[in-house]
Amino acid sequence: MTGEERKLREAIIAKCRWMNDSGLNQGTSGNISARYKDRMLITPSATPYDAMKPEMIAAMALDDSYGEWSGPLQPSTEWRFHLDIMRARPDVGSVVHTHSTYATVLAIARKPIPACHYMMAAFGGTDIRCAGYARYGTAELSELALEALEGRNGCLLANHGMIAVGANLDKAMWLAVELETIARQYYLSLALGEPVILSDDEIAETARGFSTYGLQAPKPKAVAKPAVKPRASAKASARRIEKRVGKTR
Prior knowledge:
The protein is α+β, with helices and mostly antiparallel strands.
């Protein structure tokens, strides 16, 4: 194991512990994967995050040896949709799956999330779809998830939870947090009545703004200041004053 791979494995474990500490997930119900060269690293099945070590992370080939894995523990039971997402989406470097409360509540109600907030633009479209139901760990669930994720960076899984995907581990976890936040906001807005939904044009405008968000404007070119003559000493100034006074007497 290279130092680079070990750091990625350690980062996966740290994210797992963080998402439980933050309330984004409970127990070992969630799972995280990350792309490493031609393999996928994924959390092992039914292993408490506090007891997890880098060596326990399972590795799965992204090529045609579908389902083969290496490591002391078998991969998460949800390895299929993690693997299928990465194989179908070269832009995805990490997948985060959680049973976060509000996203799961909406998934139980089979409610997709419309563009109730401009942050929907971060997910690549105007809604978060809810995939149909299939038992966890099945090929059918993986197919439904891939369909719901088409053109999107997140989806709900009916009566199950949610998935967020990103270019790397940090981005995927950030989107998982954003998805749960939007789910909570939408749920609470439903309690007030009929939420106002943003138009497709308004979401597209936000997406355009995101394309430059965080980019620093170029610094203005430095303008040369005019040279300033050095000030005369106090004694020299006093002598000039005496000369001027003497001429006027």
